[in-house]
Each structure stands twice: as C-alpha cells, then as structure tokens.
C-alpha cells in the first residue's frame, strides 16, 4: 500500500516510463524487425527452439512492458519480463558493467513491480474498484 500520494505518483511514473521504454525501445524493434538475427543470439546461449524463445522474449518485452506501463496484470506481466532480463543479464555476464547495466535496471524495476503491483494509479486498481 502506498502511504502517501507522492509515493503513489512516484511509483506510477517509474512504472510507466520503464514499461513504455522496455516495450517501445526493446520489444517493438524485435517484433517488427528481423527476429531471425535475435534467434541466432538465443541459439548461441544454448536454448532449444531458439525462434520460439526469441519470440517469447520479444513479446515479454513488448506486451509485458505495455501492461506494466498501463498497470494491467502488472505482477504476471512484470514476472515474464523480469525473467527475460535475467536471461539478458546472463547473456551480458562477460561484458563490461555498462553493457549489462540496462538489463539490471529493468530487472530491478520489474522485480519491484512483481512485489508492489501496479499501485493505486493503475488499471489493476481501477478493475478492483479502489485507489487505496
């Protein structure tokens, strides 16, 4: 529960900005671009069915990011997207910190969304008929 209106507005701002950025800057380009290139990277990580998992990751970023931004099905959407960020962190484990930093930031915010939910200014709260 958000104790103050400032906390509720602050969480909403973080949720919307991170959700939209994940969806539009990372998910959308994968979905509308050449998924086979991304699937090659997934295959290099040792995943079976790399095209399936590439699409799963791309949709987790696009749809999950949009749902987190809207605050609709926030916890499950954030959980799927967070799992994708765990894989991204694994992928960048040997890279300099600056390369893995973005996945770490997304993971932190998505983990918070799993724990906190959408907050009082979300569609989840509206569906439940409350703002508290």
UniProtKB/TrEMBL annotation:
Keywords: Cell membrane, Membrane, Transmembrane, Transmembrane helix. InterPro entries: DoxX, DoxX-like_oxidoreductase. Its main location: membrane. The keyword Cytoplasm does not apply. It is a multi-pass membrane protein. The keyword Cell membrane applies. It comes from the Bacteria. It is found in: Cell membrane. The chain crosses the membrane at residues 6-26, 38-60, 66-90, 102-123. PANTHER family: INNER MEMBRANE PROTEIN YPHA-RELATED, OXIDOREDUCTASE CATD-RELATED. Belongs to the DoxX family. This is DoxX family protein. It comes from Archangium lansingense. The lineage of its organism: Bacteria, Pseudomonadati, Myxococcota, Myxococcia, Myxococcales.
